[in-house]
Amino acid sequence: MLSKKFVSATKEFSRFDKFVNAPYLRKDFALEKLPKEASLTVSGLGFYRLWINGREITKGLLAPYISNPDEIVYFDAYDVTPYLKEGKNVFAFLLGNGFLNNEGGSIWDMEKASFRSAPKLAFAFMMDGSLAFEADTSIKTHPSPILFDDLRAGERYDANLEIEGWNEADFDDSSWKNVFESEAPKGELRLCYADPIRIEEELSPIAIRKVKDGYLYIFPKNAAGFARLSLKSEKNQQIAIDFGELLSNGDLNMANIGFGKRTLKGFNQHIEFVGSGKEETYVPSFCYFGYRYAKVMGVKEEQATPSLLTMLVARSDFKHVASFTSSDERMNHLYEMAINSMDSNFFYFPTDCPHREKNGWTGDIALSADYFCWSADLGASLKEYLHSFIGVQLPNGALPGIIPTTGWGFAWGNGPAWDMALFEIPYSVYQYERDPSIISEAAPAMEKYLRYALTKEDGNGLLAYGLGDWCEVDRVSGDFKTPLWITDTLTCIMMALKAEKMFRKIGYKEQEKLARDLVTRWEKAFRKAFFFDGDKVDPRTLTQTSLSMLLESGILLKKEDERLYPMLLDLIHRDDDHFRVGVLGARRLWETLARHGDLELALKLIEQDSYPSFGYIEKLGEKTLWEEFTMEFQKREDGSLEPKNPYYLPIATSLNHHFWGSFIMVFVRYVAGIQINPDWEKEEIVLSPFFPQGIVSASAERLYRGKKVKVSWKKEGDSIFFDYEAPKDIQVRFLKRPDFEYKNKGE
Fold this sequence. Notes:
Layout: E1 6-8, E2 23-31, E3 38-45, E4 47-52, E5 55-56, E6 72-79, E7 87-96, E8 120-127, E9 130-134, E10 140-143, E11 146-150, E12 154-158, E13 177-178, E14 180-182, E15 188-191, E16 197-203, E17 207-211, E18 214-232, E19 235-244, E20 247-248, E21 251-252, E22 270-276, E23 279-282, E24 289-297, E25 309-316, E26 319-320, E27 322-326, H1 329-344, E28 346-347, E29 349-350, H2 362-375, E30 376-377, H3 379-392, H4 416-419, H5 421-433, H6 437-454, H7 484-505, H8 509-530, E31 531-532, E32 536-537, H9 544-551, H10 558-574, H11 583-595, H12 599-607, H13 614-619, E33 633-635, E34 641-643, H14 664-672, E35 674-676, E36 685-687, E37 697-704, E38 707-716, E39 719-725, E40 732-734, E41 741-743
Parallel strand pairs: 6-15, 12-22, 36-40, 39-41
Antiparallel strand pairs: 1-8, 1-14, 2-7, 2-10, 3-6, 3-8, 4-5, 4-7, 8-9, 10-13, 11-12, 16-25, 17-18, 18-23, 18-24, 18-25, 19-22, 19-24, 20-21, 26-30, 27-37, 28-29, 31-32, 33-34, 35-36, 37-38, 38-39
Helix pairs in contact: 2-5, 3-5, 3-6, 5-6, 5-7, 6-7, 7-8, 7-9, 9-10, 9-11, 11-12
């Protein structure tokens, strides 16, 4: 049972200029005898923690799920039978603001949400199949030591306000106030089936450095998660911690994860802790951070030990199901960097970055869905995320650029390349997991979107209504060279092609025809504009991005492919064999080079240590992928990142973004040589390594339908020692390279 009865501790919600403590809540009850079965469903908005008789059983961190409660209200379900006892019992809760009251998201109008309120709680307690009770005004409440909490801004905690035993059954709460009944959210009540957020790893600092106003803690890698503060404090000792990923002049620089004057000092990835004069251990409850560096202020030299601060690396608790390795160590590191960026940016749903925004930008997962789904078992979480697409989609079919949202992102920040996520997610999940239910769930929204896109045509039948080739090299974010009508029209063509396959898979014949007709319609309009006057091409439209997208679009005739591909090579060579694309071009560039037999060139563009490339980032010692290639940087011995050209301002943006990471699929598909269902509609494993020069061995593996699929090879002279492993009930197709002799091929 999912209860519609919500209660709150206060009517006033916390603000930056007036804090309201996170509330404790207690529900006492007595049992004459223990039930055979007992369950509890809970929705704590925005976040909650749950204890039963003093034992915390919260499903995961930041529970239940980050959503717009006007659209979806998430619940978690618990079997509480093992935690009950005869006599006195208590359900105890701590509530946080989460998305319900998210002033730190004001850049995206989240503080203007119609549902903004103080935290609220609903639950239903079932015993032996019958409702025992729901949340009501008999629940007692008291302010907790959390003075302030915000998903992005951080937490403030006063250990002097801790109440010993508050979550135990025998605690005397007679002096506590009663809660009041609050307005229930408008959204659909829904159990959460997404993977919970858990701590995956604990990291100690690799160095501690005294800086001007505190101690800088340096951790082994850039990651997302929490931090554990442990010390013997002094009474009323005030400790503050800032978290970031960039150093300038040897000290923490948080400018790249803020929004200038719009970001208030002390409200950006910030913790404040007031000590009570005893041994303290504190972990924030309702916020998380993206960071590699933490500056601790307010501690004495003898307190600034390695055990003072521990990085708690967290993410959604999905299972990594794939791996890749080769004799090329840089290639291995780049693969790990892409996976680290994925892990840092999956907290229930894929985000863009774990520090500055923490937003579910749809364009980011549209670009990364393929490599995400290769790397991890994400079916449950991505299917849940798709449900949010359905909830937020307007009646006319439009989608916002960020999901969840309170309404921001429809007027700007979206468009075909971002909205493509609605199609890429089910397409990629089905490719690797073969579960058609995700297509069935998304199908009505996909149809609605295709009909919406049809209304956005210009007078020439072209589409140009969204963001373009974002983050093009040497340009800032939205400053791109490739005309928008090219990227948007090609994106819509590819969108419709994928929709056609998906509709056919689930037997939606009318929708399949709609998608096919739109491909024909938009392809005709595109050809007329791009190949004007017969077969001429406007030189101004020839960019690495336009050619890469067109070559991978699936609409070219063989003779057109043969004509355009050399033009792409010419552009690359003119740029001294470096890429000059944004993220839309990058998603297609490596694949088209490898597919046309130029794998070595693709690897050079990816791996070389000269700017721009991913090898250049790796050479700087980074462990994650960056958002932009705006300028060339250099790293000083103290870890500071500074522009190589002293006349440039240090405007490094996010150093932990995943949307460039699709290049690792070139490593998997063409270096190791494993492709899972490349035809998409046909179930088979294709083995086709290219054996690039300079690489003497490679291997990759993935769990597929619960069984291992693996390929490995090693060069010895002109011979290849090759082996593979695959389920016997799955067809395996092996494509030999004619210029090598194969030995020890697996059967």
